[in-house]
Specification:
- This protein is α/β, with parallel strands linked by helices.
- The protein has 3 domains: 237 residues, Aminohydrolase, N-terminal nucleophile (Ntn) domain (Glutamine Phosphoribosylpyrophosphate, subunit 1, domain 1), CATH 3.60.20; 194 residues, Rossmann fold (3-Layer(aba) Sandwich), CATH 3.40.50.10490; 160 residues, Glucose-6-phosphate isomerase like protein, domain 1 (Rossmann fold, 3-Layer(aba) Sandwich).
- Helix content is 36%, strand content 23%.
- It has 20 helices and 27 strands.
- Strand 9 and strand 10 form a beta hairpin.
- Helix 10 runs parallel beside helix 14, helix 10 runs antiparallel to helix 18 and helix 18 runs parallel beside helix 20.
- 53% of the residues are buried.
- Bound molecules: 2-deoxy-2-amino glucitol-6-phosphate (AGP).
- 2-deoxy-2-amino glucitol-6-phosphate binds next to helix 10.
């Protein structure tokens, strides 16, 4: 997602736009820009640069823009086109009369671009956004509102738009479908923005533009229309949030907000990648034959991404019957791994900047392997060094503890496993068919778990006094135990260890007494009874048991001190379903401990050093 701001009013547009934009940096920060209409010469001018908004600020200090009272600005989270100056917004038409900023994805941009090029429009960037401004220009005959109105009706996908034109130096145009856009109603000034924090210092009077609506703004009036140009009576709300709260959209922490974004993230992934009975691995850049030739998959990653990779190992082997090795990147890079051109290395990284994973990828390529990455940041270093990339498009993950990126990585690995199975293992078709059907239910299952978060919070608070936690799981939920332990330790600083439940009797059971909390991941599965045996061993030694179990499971009750239920799903999908309560347990214990949930001590969001 990106952040956009527009301003028209009596104050300096440049300083207003810059200050407002900074409050949207959490929405994306790989490049930014400002476009204004010069108050005297009635000419449009702009500045844009790669990197954070601070880079744009430095550029403006060195090369100030002229005085203006009308402008638009943008901070980017790249989806199409690398994060560089050329692709930064605002984008302009060939005549440089019309400028726009955009948040969203235009699905039919390629066909529109072809037609516009035939008509002589000159494109500069690799973005989908640039199509919009040339389309407006194509319709433009002196009336910027009607040209924009005609253009938006040709677009498919999601967009929140800010449009200015040098022939209309007092007017700002806005339009939206699928991406948020609000209007701030000020005193002789009006605003548009992706989110309320951007303009809260200037006004708390907000019009929440709805899908299929446009607006014209001057310094003294705001008019709202539908896409057919019919006037709409817009309600002006008054918000009472603090700026900080609104950036988190009312959640206490970015981590909690990102936990709640997971149903939408999974939904957009399913929509983008599950096409009937087929899976789209757009971005992989490998033919089916090349996939068929893969004899060995090697997954490299760090931390939470490594745990996602462990789930990937189970499902790719189960579905495609292709051997999968996995290593933490920091080990892989020094172990002289056995890989060759028949090996497909899968590098998983939310940030795409993790030094160990980058080094592992270089090592793999030196040994002749093809490398594909599963990544959340468009144009990151890892992406540039990979032969193919599967973007999770989970949106910026601000909380240091990875949540939505983890579940998006696991989801992407399911897509990969299904694709591999369809190419390499005809016998797996019934299983992949069942899985694809069950995957479509996941967003709804996540939503239902989030509805029961109060109960999960209670369990967390009742157990937050324990000085040490064990997390146990088996088979495909062994990685879930590791991930649950990592989530807890990294945001609450409580010692927590994830273990394969079957391994307890080989040593760790010595830890068990009434002072230990043991989280057992025990959904319905073929190894359910095995887990119950392990739980009984712990209970016999007075361990306090928190079970994550399947709704309706009565058998677990006498064995556990607390039970957190999750909805029933396909056994192979349980890691995705149990991830949510494990995240919430860690979150609520951390809050109870008074820790800095979003920026835990000693940690960084992206570990760009060895
Ligand atoms: C996850 O909660 C941690 N913050 C950390 O383990 C993280 O997963 C790891 O550093 C890998 O980061 P990446 O996905 O950006 O490569």
């Amino acid at each position: 997602m990106c952040g956009i701001v527009g301003y028209v009013g009596h104050q300096s547009a440049v300083s207003m736009l810059l200050n407002s934009l900074k409050k949207l940096e959490y929405r994306g920060y790989d490049s930014s820009g400002i476009g204004i209409v010069d108050a005297n010469k009635r000419k449009i001018a702009f500045r844009k640069d790669q990197g954070k908004i601070s880079n744009l600020e430095k550029m403006l200090n060195a090369r100030p823009l002229p005085e203006s009272h009308l402008g638009i600005s943008h901070t980017r989270w790249a989806t199409h086109g690398a994060p560089n100056k050329k692709n930064a917004h605002p984008h302009f038409d060939t005549s440089k009369k019309i400028f726009i900023v955009h948040n969203g994805i235009i699905e039919n941009y390629e066909s529109l671009k072809k037609d516009l090029i035939k008509k002589g429009h000159k494109f500069i960037s690799d973005t989908d956004t640039e199509v919009i401004v040339h389309l407006i220009s194509d319709f433009y005959n002196g009336d910027i509102f009607h040209a924009t109105q005609k253009a938006v009706k040709k677009l498919r996908g999601a967009f929140a738009l800010g449009v200015i034109c040098e022939d209309s130096p007092e007017q700002l145009i806005a339009a939206r479908i699928g991406s948020p856009l609000i209007i701030g109603v000020g005193d002789h000034e009006n605003f548009i923005a992706s989110d309320v924090p951007a303009i809260l210092e200037s006004t708390n009077k907000i019009i929440y533009l709805k899908d299929g609506q446009m607006a014209t703004l001057t310094s003294d009036r705001v008019d709202v229309f539908d896409f057919d140009g019919k006037p709409v009576k817009a309600k002006v709300d008054e918000v009472t949030f603090s700026v900080d709260a609104v950036q988190k959209q009312g959640f206490d922490h970015f981590m909690l907000k990102e936990i709640h974004e997971q149903p939408a993230v999974l939904e957009q992934m399913l929509k983008a990648r599950l096409k009937g009975s087929k899976v789209s691995l757009e971005g992989l850049h490998l033919t089916d034959q090349q996939l068929k030739d893969v004899e060995h998959v090697f997954i490299v990653a760090c931390g939470t991404a490594y745990h996602a990779g462990l789930v990937g190992k189970y499902i790719i082997e189960k579905l495609a019957r292709t051997p999968v090795s996995i290593d933490v990147s920091s080990e892989f890079r020094y172990r002289d791994p056995i890989i060759d051109k028949k090996t497909l290395v899968v590098a998983i990284s939310q940030s795409g900047e993790t030094a160990d994973t980058l080094a592992a990828v270089r090592e793999a390529k030196n040994k002749g392997a093809k490398v594909v990455s599963i990544c959340n940041v468009v144009g990151s270093s890892l992406v540039r060094e990979s032969d193919g990339v599967l973007y999770t498009h989970a949106g910026p993950e601000i909380g240091v503890a990875s949540t939505k990126a983890y579940t998006a990585q696991v989801m992407m690995l399911f897509f990969m496993a299904i694709k591999f199975s369809q190419i390499k293992n005809e016998k797996g078709s019934a299983l992949t068919k069942d899985l694809m059907a069950a995957m479509k239910e996941l967003p709804a299952l996540y939503t239902s778990i989030l509805k029961s978060k109060r109960g999960i919070a209670q369990v967390a608070r009742k157990n937050s006094h324990f000085g040490c936690f064990l997390f146990l799981g088996r088979n495909i939920n062994f990685p879930s135990a590791l991930e649950g332990a990592l989530k807890l330790k990294e945001i609450s600083y409580i010692p927590a260890e994830g273990y394969a439940a079957g391994e307890m009797k080989h040593g760790p059971i010595a830890l068990i007494d009434e002072y230990r909390a043991v989280v057992c991941v025990v959904p319905q599965s073929d190894i359910y009874e095995k887990m119950i045996s392990n739980i009984q061993e712990i209970k016999a030694r007075k361990g306090k048991i928190i079970a994550i179990a399947t709704e309706g499971d009565q058998q677990i009750k006498p064995h556990a001190n607390h039970v957190v239920y999750v909805p029933r799903t396909h056994e192979l999908l349980t890691p995705l379903v149990v991830a949510l309560p494990l995240q919430l347990i860690a979150y609520y214990i951390s809050v109870q401990q008074g820790c800095d949930v979003d920026q835990p001590r000693n940690l960084a969001k992206s570990v760009t050093v060895e």
